[in-house]
Specification:
Among the domains are: about 10-70; about 140-155 and about 175-305, Sortase (Sortase, Chain: A), CATH 2.40.260.10. About 25% of the residues lie in helices and about 20% in strands. It has three helices and twelve strands; from the N terminus they run H-E-E-H-E-E-H-E-E-E-E-E-E-E-E. The longest helix is centred in the first third of the chain and has 43 residues, at about 75-120.
């Protein structure tokens, strides 16, 4: 049986008071929920606590002092300033870390590039022979007794100690790929080849300039001999013509070169001994015969080997 709804006039004083309290509580809960959603409510306390003196307390409109209050803490201006400073410090720290990382990456890249450059072999290019001051085979013959001596007059005075020092360098032991004999059919030359083109070496045959290329190899094979002393091996070198053959023998093979050029130069024109990109041969002797104040230079190109 449904209870009959009572009107306000039928309620007692106590019942009316209880109804007002419940209505007020309902309204208070709605207002509290609104403050919670807006983020302004910190605590709900029945009585203010002495420990929150640094916070401002507000009574929600409609509340009485005798009822519990909604405590709302408002940030102080000092706290806002401190938070701003902390934010700036954090941003500066992040920027500093980023700069350090970028610097480290840049330095690492430079180190790696230097390492790669160090690993790479430089491109080898022919360079002129700078150890020679004058071309080999230079000599003079005494008009008194007919003896031959090394011609020091060809060497500039300030470079004579250098030439003397080079003369004392030990001659390396010949290898299987180095020249042992030379044959020039056009001028009837067939002579031994020794290592070195100093005064003593050219007394024993045709001298191979130390550091010049071996037969058949890319580079300039430089051979020299006298024209009027110690066998006169290159006496007729100036008679060679373009197309003549020069055959060089090693312990294993023989190489045929074809004459391509002939020229007369001064003794100091050492660039004729410079390395070349192809397999070439250079023959050098004093010129003219019995005067010996210049040099005859024959150039040849590699044709074949067997």
């Amino acid at each position: 049986m449904v209870a009959k709804q009572r009107s306000i006039d039928d309620l007692t004083v106590d019942e009316l008071r209880q109804l007002l309290i419940e209505k007020r509580r309902s309204t208070r809960r709605d207002r509290l929920e609104f403050f919670r959603r807006t983020g302004r409510v910190i605590v709900v306390a029945p009585d203010p606590q002495p420990g929150i003196s640094n916070a401002r307390t507000e009574v929600v409109p409609g509340e009485t002092a005798a009822e519990p209050a909604v405590v709302v803490r408002k940030p102080r201006q000092r706290m806002k300033l401190w938070d701003g400073l902390l934010l700036l410090v954090e941003v500066a720290a992040v920027i500093g870390i980023v700069l350090v990382l970028l610097s480290g990456v840049s330095m690492l890249g430079e180190i790696n590039q230097e390492a790669i450059s160090a690993w790479q072999m430089p491109t080898l290019t022919p360079t002129p022979i700078i150890s020679a001051v004058v071309l080999p085979s230079g000599h003079s013959i005494s008009a008194v007794d007919g003896k031959a001596t090394f011609n020091n007059d060809e060497i500039p005075e300030h470079l004579r100690p250098l030439v003397q020092a080079q003369a004392e360098i030990p001659i390396p032991t010949p290898g299987v790929e180095q020249a042992t004999r030379i044959q020039i059919p056009a001028i009837s030359v067939y002579a031994p080849v020794v290592q070195g083109d100093g005064w003593e070496q050219l007394r024993r045959g045709v001298g191979q300039h130390i550091g010049s290329a071996n037969p058949g190899q890319k580079g300039n094979l430089v051979l020299s001999a006298h024209n009027d002393i110690y066998g006169e091996i290159f006496r007729d070198l100036d008679q060679l013509k373009v197309g003549d053959q020069v055959i060089i023998y090693t312990q294993q093979k023989q190489y045929t070169y074809i004459v391509s050029n002939s020229q007369v130069v001064m003794p100091t024109q050492v660039d004729v001994m410079a390395p070349s990109s192809n397999a070439t041969l250079t023959l050098i002797s004093c010129y003219p015969r019995l005067v010996d104040n210049r040099r005859i230079v024959i150039s040849a190109e590699l044709q074949s080997s067997q």
